[in-house]
User: Fold these one by one.
Assistant:
Number 1:
Amino acid sequence: MKKAIKLTLLSVALTSAYIAPTQAFIADKSVATEEAEKKDDKKWDVKNPTGEMKTVSIDTDESTWSNLDVHPNGKTIIFDMLGDIYTMPISGGEAKPLVLGFDWNMQATYSPDGKKIAFLSDRDGMMNVWVMNADGSDPVQITKQTSHTIHTPTWSPDGQFIAVTRGVMSSRSVAAGEIWLYHHTGGSGTKVKSGSYGAFNQKNITDPKFSPDGKYLYYTQDVTGGRVWQYNKNSTSELFNIIRHDLDTGEEERYIGGAGGAVIPTPSPDGKYMAYLKREDTKTVLYIKDLKSGVDRRLYTEMERDHQETFGTEGNYAYFDWTPNSKNIVFWSNGKFQSVEIKNKQVANIPFNVKVEKQVQQAVRVAVDVAPDKVNVKQTRWATMSPKGDRIVYQALGKLYVRYVESGKVKRLTKQNDHDEYYPSFSRDGKYITYSTWNDEDLGTVRVVKARGGKGKVITKEPGHYMQPRFSPNGEKVIFNRFTGGYITSPEWSMEPGVYIADVKGKNMKRVIKNGSDAHFGADNDKIYFTSYQSGFVWYKT
């Protein structure tokens, strides 16, 4: 005679609640604590770390991902390398360090009159904009961000303002960009361009650059659909556009785009051209656009890979610049500095040499035994007490263990190493344990083993993706979830997910619910509770 099992749907209320943390306050500090604080009142300084130092000699004619800028007189350039800033003749030669130290300095750019240099530095503990004299003296902090990233500084043509990208993190750890203006002497700044989705924005805006007449501010914007930023998009499509923002009216328009996108807007000093980068197949290509006719010209096809399909947290490429006469573009690529003449596309190498000694703080190293015979496990999963309270079964490092409460003795539940073990659960009488397994090649099973240990018997009839097995009150059946694979696990044996019941003897296995989770028996063998978004009752006959 068949007996009906009633499956009762649990109604789960999802509420938002604030739980105030328990806090302990100490009214009076001890004398020892006050003395310790007095000894440790020296402010931490990025530029002056403590610890063991090592001198490293550098003598190189190549650099990696160097941002550069041309002096308004066209005679010298500045560039960054390994967190330091250097200057050298635009024709090449020995590079002279302007900023050296343990702090990280980058993206230096000359003021329009050539007397000042704006640059990024983390010397105050966070990347911010600083301004120094052209010879590297008298650095002054301009932005004072403590929670938002700052990068890609660029001067306004009148030398009064510096535009930057301010990275703001919202619902993810990707700092979506905003464009801000700061006076060259400092201040709180003014937001020019907000993210498209307010506090929930994940799309990047960066690469600000002024037009030579100061009327417009160009920048690069992610123009893909939706607010969520994704990894590894197809960069040969249109991921980024160059936007033109009118500083008088606030109006903006998509200025340069199309297949392969457009990043790093760099207008020529005479205002006739816009240099920029776009992707063609696997290559990043340097282009210029005639701003009167709209005609594009390909200048150089061997640039390093830009950051379009990644995120560009410090801009989408190492920044390049025009010569003051608007005849050449000077850029970094393939470890070298090069100059391309826009008229005939001829590329010339700019030879340079960096010769410097740097102090490197030695890393703190602790000897670690990578394969010890024993290890103290810091995290356990699915700890379950036996009905009598004398044993606890749990998972650690992919295997199930049993701990005897009174003696503290711990042992493996099984002795196999062919698969990992998950979701242990005792039978109501405490004599058996059911659990699920996983193997990347053989997929998963549900098994039953005696509580004292053993081999474990497979009760599922076919491989699959199984979890949360639990016994019926009489110990004759096990209910469990079956879910779909794919993504990082095999997609095979995923056609019929849901809640299943199997006989502990392994003779019968049936799906009883198509949509549900966290299923378990109640006090009786004929009633099952589960969680679902559906309503009503479902009946299953054994």
Number 2:
Amino acid sequence: MNPSFSMYSYRNLFLLLAGLSGSATPLAAQTTDLPTEAVEIIKNFDARLEDAEKVTIPPAALETDTSKERLTYYVESKVPKLEYDPPRLRPLAFKREILQNQYKGFVKAGYGAPRSPWIEAGYGFQYEDQFDAHIGFLHHSAESKKLENQRFARTAFQLDGNAHLQDKFSVNGKVGFDQDIVSFYGYDHTDTTFNESATKQRFNRFSLGGQVYNTKPNNLDVDYQAGADFYSLTDFFDAKETGLHLHLSLTKWFADSHPLKVEIGNQLTAFSDSISKNLNNFYVKPSFTYHADQFRIRGGFNLVSIADGFKLLPNLEALYSLAGNALAIYAGWQGDYHQNTFDQLRQYNPFIVSAYDPRESIYRDIYGGVKGAASGWNYQAQVGFKKTEDLAMFLTDDLDTRRFRILYDTVNIVYISASAGIELWPGLQVSGTVLQNIYDPKNEESAWHLPGLEAFFGARYTLLENRLLLRGDGYLASGVSFINEDSNKDRLGSLVDLSFSAHYQVIEKAWLWFQVNNLNNNQRERWYRYPSFGINVLGGILFRF
């Protein structure tokens, strides 16, 4: 797992300032320093096919993992909150109070080993309560001296803003550019050598998006959100992909407690290398949720158009509270689709070939579990069975063994997940997440390069009146199956990664930061022939203004 720049969702880059109180890694951060008018949740690519409405840890077929091109494995633990909130609490957007002595911008710079510069900056400004905008920039790279062509570089920029009109609705817009440069260093270094240009891969991604949404209830008591998101992606081998997602969401509230929701959208993706290949998915997703004192029931469906027709998928869930917020049981049956785009697959595995067959994955998930929250702690445990059609997997390409081809199969997945977090005493917080997947492919011998077990544990401690933050993290992952050069099934080693970081406030506007990752120098191969960097160190200074 990789923390760098929150990987492919960098809307909050400029918010790093307050990460000193919440993260050991430079870009897995939150802030209370720069006000923003609305809370927006942006979801990354998740080939685990998570349902957007469930706050759960779903069966992970894929998790964005670029540990081969990044220096760290840190993953922010996402402990689910109890979904059974009081029915009448229905905020549309949360306005944040303007803080005293707030900081609008930051510059963060550092250097590490192996040969790893880091430069990052962000600025946010606001005009009363009518307009706010944010700008962010990042460059991070690394190069190993021990292994030929083991290097990466990332440069990213994003600008976004919100205009709040008549205090009734808001308009959001954003534009960004992201360049990722990786190297195909996955070859036998004992008898083979390549120059730098022969191993280079470069992804350039331009994105543009906007939406309009209501910020206050209206006379019809209908919440709405409509928007469009566009991206254009090119790589070093002349592959090109464009994507456009049009979406509309309407929610009608009855008795201020029971929502009738309809989501409508169209997702178009066009990929081309030597030939053109397109995906075009239209969906309608209506649902109604009834809240009572101790239970909640949601009923609905998801109608999706795919290449060979329409799929009618379930959207059902029931929750019963046994002890208020402290203990609730739930069960559900969910179905949805996921486009396996070149953009999303290269984020998961940057060493894939530039020609592939794009398909939609269709999944149906039957699940149940318990969750709760009380007195500073929360937890969730879930078991489920997920059947996935056309799940993407990865095997070494026959024409270029440094790269991976994509293949699909219908896979049954039995999964168990659990997460918990607690503040043991003021200043000390611990959390953890564990996910176990058991794959049963229909045609393939194994779920190639998909990990079965993943776990994250973390602890942070603030002291000296919040001037010093200490954090320790651990990430575990089981080995993955692959086919070796003798055409036999084999298995890569497991990963145990321990990391430590510290931030210290020297003066009011300046901090020193330091982190060491992979303390045990585990150079496990997440992808066949691609060992990770092993132990690595970063440090520098951060200024706020």
